Amino acid sequence: MTYSAWILLTASLVGISCGIVGVFLILRRMAMMADAISHSVLLGIVVAYLLTQSLSGIHMLIGAALAGVFTTFLVQWLHSNNVQHEASIGVVFTILFALGVILIATKAGNAHLDVQHALMGEIAFIPWNTVEIPMFGDMPVATLILLLVLAIIILIIGLFYKEWKITTFDSALAASIGIPVLGMHYLFMTLVSVTTVAAFDAVGAIMVVAMLIAPAASAYLWTDNLFKMIVISSIFGILSAIAGYYFAVWIDSSISGSMAFATGIVFFISFIFSPRHGLLSNKIRPSTMKS
Description:
There is one protein chain. By secondary structure, the chain is an all-alpha fold. The radius of gyration is 20 Å and the shape is globular. The chain is built from 12 helices and 2 strands. 80% of the residues lie in helices and 3% in strands. Helix 1 (3-27) packs parallel to helix 6 (141-159). It has a domain at 3-204: ABC transporter involved in vitamin B12 uptake, BtuC (Orthogonal Bundle).
C-alpha cells in the first residue's frame, strides 16, 4: 500500500471504531466522558514512560488504558456521592490531564513526548513505524492495533447487543430482568478507554473526541434504529477521515485537525438536511401538516 493509503486506512479505522462506540455514548448521554478519557489517558502514558523509560511497547497502551478506566471509576464514585455528573467529569479530567502536563514538563522534557503531540497526534508518521505480519508483509503498528481493537469492539457489541440495547434505553427494566447494569456500564467504559487509547497516538486527543461524538451525533439525526445508527456513524467516520485528509493536503495543514473539522461539517450538513430530524425538514413538516 502507498503512504497515503496507510494514513487513510488508519484514520478510517479510527472513524469506524469511534463511530460504533460513540453511538452508545450519545444515546447514554455520556458524550463528555469521551473528552474526559481522551485527555486523562495522557497521565497513563506519562506514568508508563516514567516507569519504563521507553516510549514504545505494550506498557504504553496498558498505562493509558488504566488511566481511562481510573477516570471512569473516579467519575462514577464522585457521582454516587452526590456530585453532579457533569461536574464530576469536568473536575476529574482537568485534574488528571493537568497532572499529565506537569509530569511531562518536569520529568519527561528530554523525551519525544509533548503536549502538542498528545492533543493533535501525528498521523503522518504512522506509516514509518511498521511491524512484519506473516502473509501480509509490513504493516504500521498503529493500524494493526486499531484492527485488533475494532475486532474486539465488534465482538463485544455483538455478543451483548441485546443487553447494550436494553441498558441504554431503559436501565430500570434491565435491572429488573437481571442484567448487571453497573457491570455493563464499566465494561462499556473500558471499551471506550481501549478505543481512545488505540486512536490516541495516531490522531491525538482532539480528533478522538471529534470521532467519538460528531459522527454518532450526525447519525442520530438520520435514523431512530440502533443498528442503522451504528452503520451510518461508521460511514460518517470514514467520510470525515477521507475528506479531512485531502483537505489537509490541499491547504497544507494538520491532518488530524482537518479530519476533526470534517466531522463538524458532516454534523452541520446532517443538522440542516437530514430528512428525519433536520432543521429544514422540521420547518417544512409543520407547514405541510397545516396545509
